């Protein structure tokens, strides 16, 4: 497990203090792929550096397994970092070294024997689908292939944790899909815990088991992907399950609802109307699968010739597994 406790980083400047990350608390289970998403300037880069202690936090703890990285000596910290493999936005390969030599770099640093380094590099290149390219040079590879080399290099020291910093933001959509599939495959096969730092919601949707939203250095939402997506009041839910463009909705009551699993098969309009004296129009809808779970997100316009019992409608929807967010209510019982 990775546990982050009260993690804070303040950069001291002559005229002011800049709080880059502020009192972050986070738990990531063993074997989980956790996405940390945020816009530019949210604190993602600082968080990456603090998680690896490349930049020491002003306060707080980073616990990997049972070891608090903020409390160990420099020697023990170097050893602990070998348990964390890093995948960068750009693979940052050494152009003068072959693919196999790039993959073996972490082992060269710890003075592993040449034959051992070569054997490990070949094993990992096969794992990431680059067998036969071990003696080529980075300039001869595509962007996606270079990123695969970067992933193989991150695995060279047999880490427990894979930390991916914007691993697909420099890639085209098809290559992005391939790299996300590879990260999932490697994580499952090697039983890795993976942390993915990204600004792309597509990465979270297609790869992650859980997610945190980082804004202005703070985690403002966090949870299992299926739970976050099912909460219609969540900012993350609205990004994970966006509604299509639609015309403005004019109705006595306008609501958004989100349901998952069996709720997706519920005929939403007739279900509400069967228990409440209203008519229901579906203004917009999005049904899609996240992970292995199907979700439905609706925008509904509800009208009636009498005051609408919002409590009754919410109860109907709750019984069928939907969460509700009221957008507008002008014909609702007081």
Automatic annotation (TrEMBL):
Protein name: D-methionine transport system ATP-binding protein
Gene Ontology molecular function: ATP binding; ATP hydrolysis activity
Function: Part of the ABC transporter FtsEX involved in cellular division. Has ATPase activity.
GO BP annotations, alphabetical order: amino acid transport
Oligomer and partners: Homodimer. Forms a membrane-associated complex with FtsX.
Species for this entry: Enteractinococcus coprophilus
UniProt cross-references to InterPro entries, sorted A to Z: AAA+_ATPase (IPR003593), ABC_transporter-like_ATP-bd (IPR003439), ABC_transporter-like_CS (IPR017871), MetN_ABC_transporter-like (IPR050086), P-loop_NTPase (IPR027417)
Family, per entry: Belongs to the ABC transporter superfamily.
Keywords, comma-separated and alphabetical: Amino-acid transport, ATP-binding, Cell membrane, Membrane, Nucleotide-binding, Translocase, Transport
Translocase found in the keyword field: yes
One of the record's GO cellular component terms: plasma membrane
Entry keyword Repeat: no
Domain ABC transporter: 2-241
Domain of life of the source: Bacteria
Taxon lineage: Bacteria, Bacillati, Actinomycetota, Actinomycetes, Micrococcales
């Amino acid at each position: 497990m990775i546990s982050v406790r009260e993690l804070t980083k303040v950069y001291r400047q002559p005229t002011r203090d800049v709080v880059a990350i502020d009192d972050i608390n986070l738990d990531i289970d063993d074997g989980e792929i956790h996405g940390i998403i945020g816009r530019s300037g949210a604190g993602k880069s600082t968080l990456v550096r603090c998680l690896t202690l490349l930049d020491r936090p002003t306060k707080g703890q980073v616990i990997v397994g049972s070891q608090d990285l903020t409390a160990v000596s420099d020697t023990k910290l170097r050893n602990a970092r070998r348990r964390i493999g890093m995948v960068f936005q750009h693979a940052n390969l050494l152009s003068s070294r072959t693919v196999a030599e790039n993959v073996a770099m972490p082992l060269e640093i710890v003075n592993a024997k040449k034959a051992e380094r070569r054997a490990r590099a070949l094993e990992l290149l096969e794992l990431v689908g680059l067998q036969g390219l071990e003696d080529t040079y980075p300039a001869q590879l595509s962007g996606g292939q270079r990123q695969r080399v970067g992933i193989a290099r991150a695995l060279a020291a047999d880490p427990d944790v894979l930390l991916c910093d914007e691993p697909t933001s420099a890639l085209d959509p098809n290559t992005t899909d391939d790299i996300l599939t590879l990260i999932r495959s490697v994580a499952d096969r090697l039983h890795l815990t993976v942390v993915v730092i990204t600004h792309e919601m597509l990465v979270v949707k297609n790869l992650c088991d859980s997610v945190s939203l980082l804004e202005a250095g703070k985690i403002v939402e966090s949870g299992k992907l299926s739970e976050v997506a099912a909460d219609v009041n969540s900012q993350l839910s609205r990004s994970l399950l966006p509604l299509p463009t639609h015309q403005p909705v004019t109705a006595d009551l306008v609501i958004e609802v989100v349901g998952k699993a069996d709720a997706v098969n519920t005929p939403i309009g007739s279900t509400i109307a069967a228990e409440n004296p209203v008519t229901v129009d579906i203004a917009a809808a999005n049904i899609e699968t996240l992970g292995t779970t199907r979700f439905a997100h609706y925008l509904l316009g509800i009208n009636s010739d009498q005051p609408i019992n919002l409590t009754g409608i919410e109860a109907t929807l709750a019984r069928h597994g939907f969460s509700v967010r009221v957008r507008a209510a002008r014909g609702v019982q007081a």
